[in-house]
Specification:
By secondary structure, the protein is of the alpha+beta class. It is 48% helix and 20% strand.
Amino acid sequence: MTLRSHLITLVLVAVLPLLLFSAIVVGLAADSERDATERGLRATGRAVSSAVDHTLDNAIGALEVLATSELLDGGDLPGFHKVAARALEGQRGWLSVAVVDRAGRQVLNTLRPTGAELPPPADARTVAAVLARRLPIVSDLIASDLPERAHVVVAVPVLRGRALRGALLTALDAHDLARVLEAQQLPHQWAAAIVDGHGVVVARVPEPQRFVGQPATAAYVALTARGDSGAARMPGLDGVRRHTVFNRLENAGWTVYLAIPTVTMDAGFRRSLVTLIGGGLVFLAAGIALAVVVGRRLTAPIVALSTAAVRLGAGQLPDTPPGSRVAEVAALGGALTDAARRRREIEGEREELLARAEASRERAALLAEASRLLASSLDYEATLERLARLLVPALADLSVVDVVGDDGEIRRVAAVHADPAKDEAARELARRFPPDRRGNHPVARALRSGRPELTGEISAETLETIAPDPAHRELAQAMAYASYLVVPLIARERTLGALSLVSAGSGRRYTAVDVPLAEDIARRAAVAIDNARLYRQSEARLRAAEAVAEIGGFLNQALDPEVVGRRIAESVRGLLGLGTSLFCRVDPYTLEMTIVAGAGAPIPGFEPGTRLPAGSATVGLAVRERRPVTTPDLLSDPRITLTREQRTLLEGLPYRSVLAVPLLSHERVIGVLALGDRRGRLFRQEEVLLAQGFAEQAALALENARLYAETRDANRAKDEFLATLSHELRTPLTAMLGWVRMLQSGTLDAATAERALQVIDRNTKLQAQLIDDLLDVSRIVTGKLSLELRAVDVGAVVEAAIDAVTPGALAKSVTLERRIDAAAGPVWGDSHRLQQVVWNLLSNAIKFTGSGGRVGVTVDREDPHVVVRVADTGQGIAPEFLPFIFDRFRQADSTTTRAHGGLGLGLAIVHYLVTLHRGTVTAESDGPDRGATFTVRVPLAPLRPTAPAGTDAATGVDRPPPLAGIRVLVVDDDADTRDLVTAVLGQSGAEVLTAASAEEALDTLARARPDVLVSDLSMPGDDGYALLERVRALGLDRDGRVPAIALTAFARAEDRARALAVGFAVHVPKPVEPAALVEVVARLASR
């Protein structure tokens, strides 16, 4: 037999058993195919269910986003109507958006204009459900007269925290759900439908118009009642018997079913059987034909091998020879194939080595040129521009360099495109859409992570992430970006910027292989930037040092605060390149600020001479905290207080980034320096230190000016006082000496001698009063003036003082008027000194009131004080002298032509004595010839002032002090206040612990638990609020909460509310009566 005959026999032997076996397999495969079809049907059903769920999720999500709108919080329904209308335009299948309030009333519907009268919601049940559950709700199908208007309602609650504000609803077109089914591209003859919780068809494909709104078959309803998913064979609404699977949706009580006709499902078996029979015959014929062909082709490989061997021997690379089933032929063909493959590998390796060598040479040349450029200049911006041009087109079609500015924002310094025509487009793109340091731009991501960002192929999704703005995306698409590599510029572990390499039309695609070269270039560029910046900083420090030295020399000689302020403001503004600067004086007692001078762009409402309330604006915060304060935008900084007028003035100005530095002298704030620049600027630490240096110079200059002025005024006051003292002593001495000489002569008659004695007596008393006043002032200066304290009836004291001055008033024809409240109550004081106070005030009033004038005295009770007012109709007080009325040796008229005598000590003594009684004295006058009023306020005596400390008022028997056995911790940064409170509480028997700061207080609490905590609120570092929070948080009061008293000069209602809110039991404003403080501590300790 021939080789061809053997091959035909082999085909028959192989094919016939195979056909028999295939017949058996087809029968088994039919059942398997049905199972596979059902599994596919179930999987597709789940996918369709997920798509419907996703559609409902999108609708719920969109509504929940709308529900967060601040327009709903403010009740701005017209504004929300516009937002909802825009949202409606972007949502396919939404018919309307409506808003209902908590009562279920419809208050807005996009189908009606704003303000139109609205009917009740169409689906009241869904509205009630969403308001009750406070969860998103999807309604069942809502039928309509027109099938194409059938819809479902999706509703979400509008919540603010736990508070329900109402609900947001949208009507979703049922046919849009049908489009969801159509989008699944189901095979022909398949059917899919959505059935709501009441068994009504919401959507169906095919023939959606025919079945929407129809009830599902009873068999289907029974099937879905058994669980959330299942399968069965049953007739459909159109009568066709189908194999049906269903799944229940997560977002609604709906089901989605998918069905395939049973005829279609079984068609596979029939086709397989027919195919098996026909295919067997075809394969049998084909096998015979192939046997004939194979026999003919057995010799072809041998011929091909011969040809390949000839080409290989000639040094050519042969094509791979065909294989053969003959072992010897196959072995020969394999040997030739291996030889050809090895030759190809050797040639490839050689070409790769040559390419690598060329690439290394180009890389070395590029790095050398880059290093030369970067080292050629300290103007790093121009250098980076040249570097970007060097990299195009060698490494990129577009090369971009961005740096991080002092304010932390990204600034583009170079953008070079290989196509000069696109250079301007690249710059326009950078101008309009700079990278946001907090966004998803690859430059921002590289700056944040400090690692390269590489994308080999820029897809549409990637471009949308980088450029979410449509206009930005359109420009980027026009540039045809294809791939990018971004590497950060890092020097001394600081990220200074980023180098971006972008391919566009060249076809280049970046890979990890390109990263090392880019990082090498970026490293060199970062070092160049860092060196240039260090040089600039060194130059800036040198200029700053020279400026500080120059300004120091100038300020050492400047004694005018306005000149000092103007020079400081101009110098620091010019040195830091700022938009504006202000210099303010601060009253160290009231902390009220006055603008002295400014430099740069003027700011309306902040001109020189403008007075700023204590605590207002950034300068007020710096004064209050006694440290530099910076803010990138003072209008949005919650720490900063502005009046409505100031906020209105500042809203339109660019200078809203502010650095405020207080001027400190002897622990007192005497001024503040404010520096302003564009909004968003962040002041560097070295700039803050420089401003502090200028502030210290200015504080020293102001203090020198103040000391100079005080010295000058003191010298003038001393000279005036000595002149006045000489006059006041010589005048009565002249009269006394003259009359004494005349009395000694013995020539006076009895009447004249009596008059002489009266003159001598009057002038002697005047001299004694002058000496007493001088001695009182000496005691005041040395701190030796003491009081004999007891309960004093102020009315009696005033009556005694009136009696003492009545002769003088009668002599001048001045009318004395009195109104004394007998029930005004006693005060705790020295009756002699209080009478001296009233006598001085009355004497002054009579002295400066002309003949026929009136002097009035009133005594009233104004809890918790007794108030004494002395008013006259005399010559009054000039406004410019009123602030100095209680100063020693100061008189409104100290000239040689003055009309009234005296040393100018009386009112100073009055002020000191009233203060010693823990009271206050004030003077008021409408001006010259308008009279004057002096008001003395002295605290009322405690409830039981008659018994000395430690003695029972009724029995006189010794009793324990009211705070005996009580431990009190006093926290105050002011040493005088700590000493006073310690003395007051200690005298009442308390054990007093003290601390000057929150940290000291915490250390003390860790060692000893007090019964009561008394704390100031305003302290350096942690204030009183922070101290109490840390005490509560750290559990330092252990098993019980230590009651706390806020002892503070912040006495506003809001200060009290804040203190109580933090946890203080009592808010006690300064100054405080010792007895009142003791009473509060005793009350809290007894709780």
